[in-house]
Amino acid sequence: MIELHEVAFHYAPGAFGLRVDEFAVARGEAVACIGPSGSGKSTLIQLISGILVPDQGRVLLDGRPMSSLSDAERRARRSAEIGFVFQEFELLEYLTALDNILLPFRIGRDLCVDREARERAIELAEHAGIGSHLGRRPRRLSHGERQRVAVCRALVTQPSLVIADEPTGNLDPDTGRAILDLLFAQVRERGSTLLTVTHDHGVLDRFDRVVDVRDLARVGVR
Amino acid sequence: MSGLAWLAWQHAVYNRVQTAILVVCLAIPMFVPVTSSSLVAHYEATLRDRAAAVPLLAGRDGSRFDLTLAALWFREAELDELSMAEVERMRETEGITPLPMRLGFTARGVPVVGVTPEFFDLHGIRPVRGTLPLQLGEVVVGADVAKDLALDVGGVMFSDQVDHYDISKPPSLAMDVVGVLPRRDGPEDDVVFVGLETTWIFEGIVHGHAATEEVDDAMVLGRNEQAVTLSGAVVEYQRVTPDNIESFHIHADPSALPVSAIVLLPATPKAATLTKSHWNAGTTGVQIVVPTEVVEALMQSVFRIKSLVDALAFLLGACTVVMTTVVIVLSLRLRAREIETLHRIGCGRRAVGWLCGLEILAIVVLAALVAAIGFGLAVLWLPDLVRML
Predict the structure, then answer these.
(1) What is the pLDDT of residue B388?
(2) Residues in Cβ contact with B47 at an 8 Å cutoff, skipping those fewer than 6 apart
(3) Which ipTM value was assigned to this complex?
(4) B4 to chain A: which residues are within 8 Å by CB?
């Protein structure tokens, strides 16, 4: 599903950089990436999702190279095949919960908000327990509810890969657990791959594999 | 693109107060110069048309602007009086037709204009109902006056007493409304017209009362073969009727009867030149002005003011553009995380640029729309606005 071969990346000459020799995640696998701040977790995620392009090496998604695509093609794959969940939820304040869930359809080049998308969004929201809050704007939702909306947004395009960057970092333990339950239930149901960055060691046993980025990648200044 | 437009619209609607403030701030510098130009153009055309209808205007020495504005637009002005003697002298000039006017009186607060019948022909004034004021004590009302005061043919309109504290001055005159003028979007809409002689009743120069034979002897102060002197306590008629109209008379020299201004209609350019040169010689106490020249001078002042308004509008516009740019830049900084999120989940940098551009475009388009609506309303009310000036 995800393959990185001899990948090297630097933000700028002389700036922070990352090198990964080999890294692979199988389809349907749930992998947790751990490591202290500055270990390269976010950079790794951005390389996998095509937000960053490696200076050398190859990034493959479902066997297809991500790193050799044009910016527009990478964006198209990102919006269609990858769902993102962020630590700070990153919902748009001016949209309702439903419109936030449907956001990938609004901005995706090959996607549009049709009846099917809307029904899927509502179904997801009901599974997430926020079916009655779809008309509310993020300001009127609790943190847990906002993250549920964010999870629904990540899953609404039925992506083959879900990348979650500290999804429970801003939540209390109970709410965090509930969010992970939701995330796992949805990705398992769809057979999606889950790549999660977390500092919460209490949840690691739920993942199929735990990767310490320090073991995986070499970071430093070139 | 449609999704981005939808997002831009949602953002604008959610931040509707900020959007509205930006829209108004941008609409004002768009609205002001366009509207002021249109207003001035309309004002200029209206002034010139009106002035062109009156070739020459005579009045007592003084401000030519006051004279022109009072005689052509019936504006309140303290004009020194001419006399009918001067009217007659002008009439004697070959090729000159004088149309005397009397101004400065009001009825129910509305300016009363005393004119001769030829004045109505000059300006093409015809009543929409009734007739023109052909007899003493008759009044024809402008369209707006008729509407505002609910007056119509058959009604009665009282003149305002010349002086409430001077009992020697005549009381209000009850005038019969004999006609209503159509709306002309001009100064005629806001005034009433009477015959020139009726204005002399307001002043007490012309009056009517019971015949001396019918007056109580106690009211007769003196009597000889030429005249009968009556007491001031004899009540004068306050309304001209078919029964008493014959009793209205003057005691003064008819040539001394006052007029405020005289419209002069020269038959030829030569007659106009001769009349101007004679009366403007400096010893007559009379000035003859060419209204088109006065209006031209007036417009120069208006253009100077308009230039100032345009300069201020430009300055205002420049400040608004700078401020709007600052607001937009700050807004984009505040939205940096939102923009980053959109980029991460699949929105290109260019598309994010489009999103912001669409929002700015929506604000500019809305501002233009607001300015256009404002301009449309201003054009709709332009005649009223011009009359207010």
Answers:
(1) 62
(2) B295, B298, B299
(3) 0.82
(4) 106-107
